[in-house]
Design goal:
The protein is of the alpha+beta class. It has helices at residues 4-10, 13-17, 73-93, 122-138, 140-143, 159-180, 224-227, 236-248, 252-257, 296-303, 325-340, 348-364, 381-403, 407-419, 426-437, 442-459, 464-487, 492-500, 511-514, and strands at 20-30, 54-56, 62-66, 97-98, 148-153, 185-186, 199-200, 206-207, 284-287, 307-313, 371-374, 377-380.
């Protein structure tokens, strides 16, 4: 087996030059008092169904801003910033702003949170019904958690290589939770009526003293149903089989909810353990761009993994766009390390161990002396994190040598310093700022950071040409949505049955009859 150093030297310069990353950043629209904006998706932002860069996630109130896949970190940050500028200006004009934190703002009752709407087409209706199902299964409040997804690829990597990367990522994900977790506290309204282990921090916040990311802990994207899934990442075939089983396994509590209620309205797309592939919660996913009429699982089986989607990054409330260039460079180095390091197969025992490590890192990551489990042995989190990041040093040097400058090495050194200075982590800084300036109120802290982000974005240069380009994109997306709606020929129920049919997981189907267009 080649050493890591040998693998670094074997990397072709064109591979490093072709490294791509893209961002999907979620955020809630809020009013100036920090409460959730209940207005429809702004028309000036275009169609949530078809706009290439501005859509919604779970709710009408939850925007998702999407960059292209970029070969440079600087280009990715620039595009993310420009999209944010347009959104900030649009929202400011109607008296709203974007919530710059992962845990939600002050939320109304669960049933009052508005589901995202995507128009009258079959695919638009299906996207809304899917979200209705998520609400029935997990509650609408949980869906209002927001984050930053990091899409990453490297030329020449095959499916086996990406799955090796994923196994190592899952082993070392605690490092990212420790370094970049930024949700140690939340608004008490989020857990109203739920059993939890949070402690009061003044009258307007709940927290855990050493938490890094409550979003990634037991209060975040967790469910009893999905806890029964033991998905292996040893091969594309094994992963696809696990996902297929979850998509086809009847689940009695969801069967009790039913597809439709007595009034005929839809409750969910399917009664299986997962409605569709995207419902599977994970810290990282293998991805493949789908073709018209094609299910994601079929795309993966047919053409293999195209890129990975990192899903555990919190919004950084100290950054106007929720993530910094330095953080992105650490992610690049970290993912390259996961790809090039030896990656033995996972086992059921290790999968259980990693789930426990994730909970510990999320809920107690800054606790002095905290230990995790590695192959049945107790290892201090700080020592293990130091070991992982030390191994990344030559990779950062290789990226700097290929691209010029010292940006990667500088970002990694900042991360290494943070390992032994937990007070410098975003999660510790959030708690410190809450105590110093906001009377330990989470809502006041997050609203202040959101206003600061808005003001910073509004202060940046913005040209008439930029405004015209984004207006044109919005108009084009609205026209595209109308064209999709006009092209529908099937009744929705027939379309739904065809989309969730078992053969759709194995074959693309009739593109004219069942074209889903944009993904659900």
């Amino acid at each position: 087996m080649s050493t890591l150093q040998e693998k670094i030297h074997a990397l072709a310069p064109q591979a490093i030059a072709g490294m791509r990353r893209g961002i999907e950043k979620e955020g809630l629209r809020v009013l100036p008092d920090g409460s959730l904006a209940l207005t429809p998706h702004p028309l000036a932002l275009g169609s949530a169904l078809t706009h290439p860069h501005i859509t919604t996630d779970y709710s009408e109130s939850q925007l998702e801003l999407v960059t292209s896949a970029r070969v440079g970190v600087g280009a990715c940050v620039d595009e993310l910033t420009e999209i944010h500028q347009y959104v900030a200006r649009t929202l400011h004009a109607q008296g709203e702003l974007l919530w710059n934190a992962s845990m939600p703002c002050t939320l109304p009752t669960d049933e009052t949170i508005p589901l995202a709407r995507f128009g009258a087409s079959n695919v638009g209706r299906a996207k809304s019904v899917y979200r209705m199902g998520l609400g029935h299964r997990y509650g609408r409040r949980m869906q209002m958690i927001s984050g930053v997804h990091y899409n990453w690829s490297l030329p020449g990597v095959d499916s086996a290589g990406y799955f090796a990367l994923i196994r190592n990522f899952r082993r070392h994900a605690f490092v990212l939770l420790y370094l970049f977790g930024a949700s140690p506290a939340l608004c008490p309204c989020f857990v109203q009526g739920r059993v939890h282990n949070l402690q009061p921090l003044g009258p307007n916040a709940l927290y855990l003293p050493h938490a890094t990311s409550l979003r990634m802990g037991r209060l975040g994207y967790q469910s009893e149903a999905q806890a029964s899934l033991a998905v292996s990442y040893n091969s594309l075939e094994g992963y696809a089989a696990s996902l297929y089983e979850a998509l086809t396994r009847p689940y009695p509590p969801y069967e009790a909810v039913g597809i439709r209620n007595p009034g005929g309205d839809y409750n969910q797309l399917a009664t299986s353990l997962l409605q569709i592939e995207n419902e599977f919660y994970s810290t990282i996913r293998p991805k493949r761009t789908t073709r018209s009429g094609e299910r994601p699982l079929h795309a993966l089986r047919e053409r293999g993994v195209e890129y990975v989607e990192v899903r555990l990054m919190d919004i950084d409330p100290f950054e106007p766009v929720g993530i910094s260039a330095a953080t992105m460079r650490v992610l690049d180095v970290f993912l390259l390390h996961c790809l090039l390091s030896d990656s033995p197969p996972d086992t059921p025992e290790e999968i259980t161990e990693l789930q426990r490590n994730q909970q510990l890192a999320a809920e107690r990551g800054r606790e002095p002396g905290l230990c995790l489990q590695r192959q049945g042995r107790s290892v201090p989190l700080v020592a293990w994190a130091q070991e992982v990041l030390d191994a990344c040093v030559p990779l950062a040097a290789a990226l700097d040598a290929a691209q010029g400058g010292s940006d990667y090495s500088d970002a990694l050194q900042q991360a290494l310093a943070r390992v032994h200075e937990p007070e410098q982590t975003p999660s510790a800084r959030v708690l410190a700022r809450m105590a110093q300036a906001h009377g330990n109120s989470y809502a006041d802290f997050a609203l202040h950071q959101s206003m600061a982000a808005r003001d910073a974005l509004l202060a940046l240069p913005w040209s008439d040409a930029q405004q015209a380009r984004y207006r044109a994109m919005a108009q084009a997306s609205l026209a595209e949505q109308k064209a999709i709606e006009a092209a529908d020929t099937l009744p929705f129920e027939a379309w739904r049955q065809r989309y969730v049919a078992l053969d759709a997981l194995d074959a693309p189907g009739d593109a004219h009859a069942a074209t889903p267009g944009p993904g659900l």
